[in-house]
């Protein structure tokens, strides 16, 4: 790939990424102040990954994905995870059709473009793994028939950081399947004033479809062509290896705080997310800023902290910060 | 005649049969409480005898010293002698019992019993009351003091060693600080490095990417030294933000941002600027270093 090709990619991206502004504007009609969450939703959507959202109730998680599906004219499903939920409630089952005297397949809510798995940690492991298998394999088998998932297929799972009683925390192997784990915070005071006023005035904006599913799929293909230099690849690998062997990067004190580092899925997703971020910023190449911008969301659920770290109140976020401050930027 | 014969036979028997004599003597029958009375035990016998357990026999009087049994053979007779010292810490009269000696033939021979008295020390109530004796001075013993002396030597040696190490570390630190002081000023170092880079003529050789990598490295190192920043681990946006905090002139900051962005394009997007642009950024780098240093000096003077 030479410089002329990159210029072409740049031009192409400038044309094809125009829908991002439209989509963001449409979403901002309803979602106020959660710019970071909207950006991460787009990264998941264009990076063909899934997102785990963590935040207290009432931060517009459901509204965000609902709005996104409306703005893209996709099919939206919501699954409220509860302790008595069964895998068949998620993926579907076979039901007996009496007039025809045969079993027919009833597809579950997972068959959609945008799936909201609300409070995923409230359902038992078998339900979680049914969903996560569908996320990974992008196909579901009901009875003896296998169905491919619709494209785009974006699962947005939510988790509540408070009230951990009676929950089934997602195992590390399953959390790893989420491309990003985004932590949502409360809106700013000004934003919350707008939310409050809109609600009191009964002002409900109608979201119109501004992007087609085909446009999203096309954008995904363009994202793949975003150029990533070897220096950026090395930078990503340095960050990932620093989570595994911190002592090699002069971070000996982190060795006792990290129980396990990021998996190879971490490096794949960090590279993909950085490319999508560059695309969103209308660039045909990745710069270190792109890697750093998505690093926390990609790695925070892939680094295991030890009991020592918990005792010292050191989170995976702190570890990522220290790694980013130590690994040399190309 | 018969009578004479009987007497002769009787006398012969006294000479021919075994004879054993036992007796005990004391040096005194009266001693002060706690004082010692010496007993002399003598046994004469022409046959072996069993010696009794004297300590048990003498109870409650204590046997302070039991001498060895001395044996002497004189004219086919065995003479045994033993000295015994007894004492008692109670006052009163005590009877030392008869001491039995059993011969091999099974006959038992007894000494006489002896009465001894232990009398209390008379108190002279007319005299004043005295203190108890002072503790006796123990003479200095080198072997007892040896571990303490050697321990002290080891402790002193350790303290000296620790002091020596601390001094050495301090000297090293001072030495490092001196080295820093002796370093050439950051602007001169950056200018020299830029001149060296220009001399290499990497752009002319087609190594444009390498040229911009080195150029940004020189500028980052310069910013680190000039403003005490950590730009090696920072991205272009972060470097610009850090310099903004340092109150670098807006126009100069724009120039720095422009240069770093162009360098990013070369490094990460395979951009290949023309020779005019390369030259412009090279001149711009000199200006950035000179102006930043000048401004920082002015700020520090203020």
Description:
- The complex is a heterodimer of chains A (330) and B (302).
- Chain A has 330 residues and is an alpha/beta fold.
- Chain A folds into 2 domains: 199 residues, P-loop containing nucleotide triphosphate hydrolases (Rossmann fold), CATH 3.40.50.300; 101 residues, Magnesium chelatase subunit I, C-Terminal domain (Helicase, Ruva Protein, domain 3, Orthogonal Bundle), CATH 1.10.8.80.
- The longest helix of chain A has 17 residues.
- Chain B is of the alpha+beta class.
- Chain B has 2 domains: 103 residues, Immunoglobulin-like; 116 residues, no CATH class.
- Chain B contains 8 helices and 11 strands.
- In chain B, strands 1, 3, 5, 6 and 7 form a 5-stranded antiparallel sheet that branches. In chain B, strands 2-11-8 form a 3-stranded mixed sheet, with no helix packed on it.
- In chain B, helix 6 runs antiparallel to helix 7.
- Chain B is rod-shaped.
- The relative contact order of chain B is 0.08.
- Classes of the chains: A alpha/beta (330), B alpha+beta (302).
- Chains A and B meet through helix 12 and helix 14 of A and helix 6 and helix 7 of B.
Topology of helices and strands:
The complex is a heterodimer of chains A (330) and B (302).
Chain A: H1 3-16, H2 18-30, H3 35-46, E1 51-54, H4 61-71, E2 76-80, H5 87-91, E3 92-97, E4 102-107, E5 114-118, H6 125-137, E6 139-142, E7 145-148, E8 154-159, H7 172-175, E9 180-183, H8 189-200, H9 213-224, H10 230-244, E10 258-260, H11 264-280, H12 288-299, E11 304-305, H13 307-311, H14 316-326
Parallel strand pairs in A: 1-8, 1-9, 2-5, 5-8
Antiparallel strand pairs in A: 3-4, 6-7, 10-11
Helix pairs in contact in A: 1-9, 2-3, 2-4, 3-11, 10-11, 11-12, 12-14
Chain B: H1 2-16, E1 20-26, E2 30-32, E3 36-45, E4 49-50, H2 54-58, E5 62-66, E6 70-74, E7 77-87, E8 92-96, E9 100-103, E10 108-110, E11 114-119, H3 142-182, H4 186-200, H5 208-227, H6 236-245, H7 250-268, H8 275-301
Parallel strand pairs in B: 2-11
Antiparallel strand pairs in B: 1-3, 3-7, 4-9, 5-7, 6-7, 8-11, 9-10
Helix pairs in contact in B: 4-5, 4-8, 5-7, 5-8, 6-7, 7-8
């Amino acid at each position: 790939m030479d410089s002329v090709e990159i210029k072409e990619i740049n031009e192409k991206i400038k044309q094809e990424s125009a829908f991002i502004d439209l989509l963001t504007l449409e979403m901002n009609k309803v979602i106020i102040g959660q710019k970071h969450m909207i950006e991460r939703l787009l990264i998941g959507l264009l990076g063909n990954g899934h997102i785990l959202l963590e935040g207290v109730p009432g931060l517009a998680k459901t509204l965000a994905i609902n709005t996104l599906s409306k703005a893209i004219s996709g099919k939206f499903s919501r699954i409220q995870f509860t302790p008595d939920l069964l895998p068949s409630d998620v993926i579907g089952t076979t039901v007996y059709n009496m007039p025809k005297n045969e079993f027919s397949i009833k597809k579950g809510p997972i068959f959609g473009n945008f799936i909201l798995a609300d409070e995923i940690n409230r359902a038992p492991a078998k339900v979680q793994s049914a969903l996560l298998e569908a996320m990974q394999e992008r196909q579901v088998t009901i009875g003896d028939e296998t169905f491919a998932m619709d494209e785009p297929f974006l699962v947005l799972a939510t988790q509540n950081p408070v009230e951990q009683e009676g929950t089934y925390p997602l195992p590390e192997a399953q959390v790893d399947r989420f491309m990003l784990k985004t932590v949502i915070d409360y809106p700013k005071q000004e934003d919350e004033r707008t939310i409050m006023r809109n609600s009191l005035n009964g002002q409900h904006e109608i979201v119109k479809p501004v992007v087609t599913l085909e446009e999203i799929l096309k954008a995904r293909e363009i994202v793949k062509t975003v150029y990533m230099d070897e220096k950026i690849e090395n930078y990503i690998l340095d960050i990932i290896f620093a989570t595994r062997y911190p002592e090699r990067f002069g971070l000996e004190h982190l060795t006792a705080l990290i129980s396990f580092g990021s998996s190879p899925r971490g490096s794949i997703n960090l590279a993909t997310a950085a490319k999508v971020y560059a695309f969103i910023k209308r660039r045909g190449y990745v710069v270190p800023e792109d890697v750093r911008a998505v690093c926390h969301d990609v790695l925070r659920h892939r680094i295991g902290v030890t009991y020592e770290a918990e005792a010292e109140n050191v989170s995976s976020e702190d570890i990522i910060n220290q790694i980013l401050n130590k690994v040399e930027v190309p | 005649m018969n009578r004479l014969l009987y007497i002769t036979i009787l006398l012969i028997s006294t000479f021919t049969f075994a004879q054993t004599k036992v007796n005990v003597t004391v040096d005194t029958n009266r001693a002060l409480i706690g004082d010692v009375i010496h007993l002399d035990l003598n046994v004469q016998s022409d046959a072996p005898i069993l010696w009794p357990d004297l300590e048990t026999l003498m109870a409650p009087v204590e046997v302070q010293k039991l001498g060895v049994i001395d044996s002497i053979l004189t004219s086919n007779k065995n003479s045994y002698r033993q000295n015994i010292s007894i004492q008692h810490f109670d006052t009163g009269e005590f009877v030392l019992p008869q001491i039995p000696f059993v011969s091999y033939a099974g006959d038992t021979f007894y000494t006489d019993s002896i009465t001894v008295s232990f009398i209390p020390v008379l108190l002279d109530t007319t005299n004043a009351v005295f203190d108890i004796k002072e503790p006796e001075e123990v003479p200095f013993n080198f072997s007892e003091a040896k571990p303490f002396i050697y321990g002290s030597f080891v402790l002193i040696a350790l303290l000296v060693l620790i002091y020596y190490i601390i001094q050495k570390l301090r000297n090293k630190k001072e030495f490092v600080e001196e080295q820093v002081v002796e370093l050439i000023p950051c602007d001169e170092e950056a200018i020299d490095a830029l001149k060296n880079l220009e001399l290499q003529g990497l752009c002319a050789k087609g190594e444009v990417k390498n040229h911009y990598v080195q150029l940004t490295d020189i500028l980052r190192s310069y910013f680190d030294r000039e403003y005490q920043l950590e730009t090696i681990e920072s991205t272009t946006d972060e470097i610009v933000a850090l310099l903004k905090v340092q109150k670098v002139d807006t126009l100069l900051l724009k120039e720095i941002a422009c240069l770093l962005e162009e360098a990013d394009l070369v490094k990460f997007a395979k951009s290949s600027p023309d020779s005019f642009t390369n030259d412009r950024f090279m001149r711009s780098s000199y200006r950035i270093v000179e102006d930043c240093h000048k401004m920082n000096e002015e700020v520090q003077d203020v």
